[in-house]
Amino acid sequence: MELMKRTAVINVVGLTESLLGPTTPHINRFVSKGARANIVPPFPAVTCTSQSTYLTGLPPSQHGIVANGWYNHEQAEVQFWKQSNHLVHGRKIWEELRELEPGFTCAKLFWWYNMYSTADYSITPRPMYPADGRKVFDIYSWPFSIRPDIKKDLGEFPFPTFWGPGAGVQTPQGAPDACSRWIAESAKWIETKYSPTLSLVYLPHLDYNLQRLGPKHPGITEDLRRIDSIVGDLIQFFEQRSVRVILLSEYGITPVDTPIHINRILRENNWLAVKEELGLELLDAGASRAFAVADHQAVHIYLNDPSIENKVRAVIEKVPGVADVLDRKQQEARRINHPRSGDLIAVSHENAWFTYYYWFDDNKAPDFARCVDIHRKPGYDPVELFLDPKIPAVKLKIALKLLKKKLGFRMLMDVIPLDATLVKGSHGCRPSNPADYPIFITSQPELLANGQMNPTDVYHQIKRHVLH
């Protein structure tokens, strides 16, 4: 075990070279003492794909995480943000390092696919869903004993600040950076209690306003100050305990102004099927000839009728904002050819992104469309970061709904708008400027070969930091 160097990998979501400056003095100081490289973004550059690529050293064509969610052919359902690590194929970095040294241990803190992994210690967001229809915010941990012990010391995880309209803004539940601060404190707690050889720490604070406001908005400077303070404190903590530190990110977020409602286009051509339930419309993926699973700037298009592939492609290629459409053969070059992938994958221009919207009339939108509901929606929805500006006294409405929930009544937290133009930042395609690529910063400059690396190289870089 003496041969292994204890290492912490801090994933600062959305951090790029273009964001470093006067508002990031702690990160700048860390760069000046070490070395920095840009990571060529994986495709698509989204959370689950990026993290799985980093932790397996494999492309999506091999590890199988082609997006944050995809269509399950056998169940005829779109499934998003699943949490079982069994979905990620290939050997994980902690498994290889454990083979090299049986005493090796790994802590995986809020990185995705954290449930039922072979990591020694883990914490991940996981609500509870009692039979009465409530949703109770909580976390899942391994070992189970971590959950009650860490909540006793740190308090409840501030779940409303992890995603939704309360993420990245001041709320009664906490400061704008409350969830990232809790996660950082959990990393200290785990380090103090268990001293793992490798700690994987996820800090999401930048992700919220970079999507909500866009990276050019002046308000981002405050977000940079906040994350820099958290990161600086965590670096100091780990270095005082002789733990090497790597800072990295999963993707860079670029300004957007063009939402693409690709499912509406498929519906206009009579390829997408919708069923009406309780007066509202639900996408019927299994009955559709073609439908799209949207995820930021990439969208998987699934064809239950292969005969229409050329027609679908011809239509999508003409849509303003679409940069490319990849068939199965072309997906091989992007290393995303996998049974979970769409028959076609459309990629947007840097200033555009894809919505999951399929209804024409907002009065027919499903009830979950106006809620934070990451699992039921057949696609990623960044509009969940907003409160509907059309609702009078919306915060009072939320307070009344929460009171109703506390009294044991069922309620629908339908406060999310249906206006995709509110979103000002996105990711998924490869930015034109390398300064907007994800970043890799190390405290060990001698271990970094050059100023740019492929996403699969991150695995090997982490391995080198532990072994050399």
UniProtKB/TrEMBL annotation:
One Pfam family this sequence matches: Phosphodiest
Molecular functions per Gene Ontology: hydrolase activity
Family matches, as InterPro entries: Alkaline_phosphatase_core_sf, Phosphodiest/P_Trfase
Superkingdom of source: Bacteria
Record protein name field: Type I phosphodiesterase/nucleotide pyrophosphatase
Species for this entry: Pedosphaera parvula (strain Ellin514)
